[in-house]
Amino acid sequence: MTSGLRLRPRTLTGSNHRQEQQPLRSPSSVIAVSHHSPRWHQRQVEDMMSSDLASSSSSSSSSHPPLLPALAFQEIVLGDIVGRGGFSFVHEIKYVKLQEVYDTGDEEAESRARFASVFGVARSSSGGVDGDEDDDGAVVGGLPPSRRYVLKTLRPDLPEDEHAKGIVDLAVESQFLAALSHPRILSIRGHANSDPLESRYFVILDRLETTLDHKLALWRKDVGENMGYWFGPCLGYCCSRPHVLRRIWAERFAAARDIASALEYLHGMDIVYRDLKPDNVGFNSSGELKMFDFGLAKRVTAADRSSDDDGLYNLTGNTGSLRYMAPEVALNKPYSLSVDAYSFGVLFWQLCSLSIPYSGFSCKMHSDMVVRRGYRPTLDSTWPVSWGSLMGQCWSADHRSRPTFERISMAMNAELEEWTAIAAAEGGDFMTNERGNAGSIDGVESIKARLGKSVFKIRARKDGSRLDVDTRLANPEGTTEWKHDVNIV
């Protein structure tokens, strides 16, 4: 168990009961949530945010992370809505108007001053900002275009039951992001100076330009445009651009490697993510991958262990999106950190095939075939054997057969190093469009031998099912009607 996880000093106080943080996640409790009082929901947040995360940092005496700046909603000038979730809106931040009246102490004032210095926002006792504004309202000489930030807050149109769950999610995410530091995990930059249980609570995050879901669509399009024309088994593809196709392969594989790196970090801190899917993986303006949405994350403790000595924990079942959900989670059985490996196996298959796993499956089909009978996506015979082996281990029905993310990361890095070496022999860059030495055939053939025909293959199908619906929501529109039937998961 790692002791490197640290919380910012600003936390809620509450009981020290160590229980699963979000009992609202199972279908039964979603249906029954309206029977609980607002105070019941408050206790869930307080129990979750008491000593669960802080305990892991108590034994370390070095370098606490700086206190995150706490801002009033009135100090932030918002731009357009740039993202929407089941519980939240994400707004662009145009600029910030720091006001001294909201400084509550020396440490808080220092944190806010540091925020002003880092983000190019000036303090004003009257509520203004030093510097001129351009036609778009952006501060000239203030926040540079390359460093844009967003504000995430609860949707104002949520029904009461969904609002209670949204409060829990945002509070959980705020606490986790404040405690984590990894290049492949989205960074939190600030938060509201109000109680996390209030409707106007918000967090300030780095802005992401796109999600992995959109990237997958772009990769499908790019592969389709560059794989050329099929002239039968004798001639194969003609007019293809293999150097572009190799770059796209490398980008997809690098994305899988980065996700594995982030999950290795989380598991090293005994944190199970539980919601790995393309919608929760993004890319910033520099193209760097970032995992986000930690509303379902949970740090497992000894108190969560099941009665059997099998390494499993009594955690909330039916948590996440069924398409990527491990069978034991869907069946409400005890589970371990390895449920993230299952999700990774399915997502890795999606990255390789550029197809949607279990496309066209209804909820009943998925429950019968995938959860109970062990059906899994079909492996492409042209993929390297090592890829199929890794996928099969990850999505094994037996949690003990799934690899750790330390092993997964090692395998991914070794694979990319091999590709890089082959590309270097060709005289080009595997991660760019450059052809390298056009006269070097050995490098091209080596990569083709490694990837097989898969460099040219694609299955671009649209998904008509609803397996991606988050189990936290009554339905995608956020209404209170529960629709967990054969059409929705």
Automatic annotation (TrEMBL):
Residues 1-65 are annotated as: Disordered. PROSITE patterns: PROTEIN_KINASE_DOM. Residues 50-65 have a biased composition (Low complexity). SMART domains: S_TKc (SM00220). Residues 76-420 form the Protein kinase domain. It comes from the Eukaryota. SUPFAM superfamilies: Protein kinase-like (PK-like). Residues 12-31 have a biased composition (Polar residues). It holds the Pfam family PK_Tyr_Ser-Thr. InterPro entries: Kinase-like_dom_sf, Prot_kinase_dom, Ser-Thr/Tyr_kinase_cat_dom, Ser_Thr_protein_kinase. This is Protein kinase domain-containing protein.
